[in-house]
Write a structure and sequence with these properties.
The strands form three sheets. The chain has a nine-stranded mixed sheet with strand order 2-1-3-4-13-12-11-7-8, sandwiched between helices. It has a two-stranded antiparallel sheet with strand order 5-10. It has 264 residues and is α/β, with parallel strands linked by helices. The protein has eight helices and 13 strands. One of its GO terms (cellular component) is cytosol. InterPro entries: ChyE-like (IPR044992), Class_I_gatase-like (IPR029062), GATASE (IPR017926). This is Glutamine amidotransferase domain-containing protein. Residues 66-215 form the Glutamine amidotransferase domain.
């Protein structure tokens, strides 16, 4: 079991010899995908239960991002993907709550240049918080496209060892169309141009999903028929996803944790 949701602001600091946890801002309802997401973060981050603290942004009782003491209490923040998007007008209360909270959190993280890995929805939140624009027309269905490092990506300590070209699973309807202020492009795709950004020195966002493994993609394929692909094409989607080697993308989680994990 992972640690429970953050219900209120911390009142005590962790013992001096303990490792500070990574805060995971969960932007999706509980279920198989959310469980797989956290399990993969633990596996590739080599993190125990005590190394993760979960903030469920859908939970009405969870504390607000503005109350968090990031520098004191956490090694870094990971913002998950989400079935919610930033487009559309008819949004449920849960959708509105997630969007409001993730935007507020993203702004704080960029303002403080606090170690962050925003994944898909997380990248988009970071982009919107810094003046970027999302556009339709560059969405990607369930596949593993080729991703290429830019010159900045080759020099960045988090991405330099990924190789000039790697593959990672995707699934999104919108993408960053106007580059946010202060952001550098670390990785691009043949179709979706903005695949990875960095703000300052420590805030990262990926449009692709480094937290999805082959097993995890099967969970998503079984969940998203007629959403990200026509249900009658399921066998072809499985075949193309199974043929991809996404280990280099998964290992970005390892390098993020190794770079930023610190003690109290």
């Amino acid at each position: 079991m992972v640690t429970g949701s953050v219900q209120c602001m911390h009142t005590e600091s962790a013992p001096a010899t303990s490792r500070l946890p990574f805060l995971v801002a969960v932007c999706r309802p509980t279920g198989d995908i959310a469980t797989d997401e956290l399990n993969t973060l633990r596996m590739y981050g080599r993190l125990g239960d005590e190394d993760l603290e979960i903030m469920d942004l859908l939970d009405t009782d969870a504390c607000e991002p503005e109350t968090l003491n990031l520098q004191r209490d956490y090694s870094g923040v990971i913002i998950t993907g989400s079935p919610f998007g930033f487009h559309g007008e008819d949004k449920s209360p849960e959708h509105q709550r997630v969007e409001r909270r993730v935007r507020a959190l993203a702004k704080r993280l960029i303002d403080q240049d606090f170690p962050t890995l925003g994944i898909c929805f997380g990248l988009q939140a970071l982009s919107l918080a810094s003046g970027g624009k999302l556009v339709d027309g560059f969405g990607e269905d369930l596949q593993a496209p080729r991703i290429s490092l830019t010159d900045d990506g080759h020099r960045d300590p988090l991405t330099a060892h990924a190789g000039p070209v790697f593959y990672s699973y995707t699934g999104h309807s919108q993408a960053v169309g106007i580059l946010p202020k202060g952001a550098s492009i670390l990785a691009t795709g043949d179709f979706c141009h903005v695949q990875m950004l960095r703000w300052g020195k420590n805030v990262y966002g990926t449009q692709f999903h480094p937290e999805i493994t082959r097993k995890g993609m099967h969970i998503r394929i079984n969940t998203y028929g007629d959403t990200y692909y026509p249900a009658d094409q399921k066998a072809a989607v499985i075949a193309r996803c199974d043929s991809a080697d996404v280990l280099s993308a998964n290992q970005l989680i390892t390098r993020f944790v190794e770079r930023y994990q610190r003690t109290a």
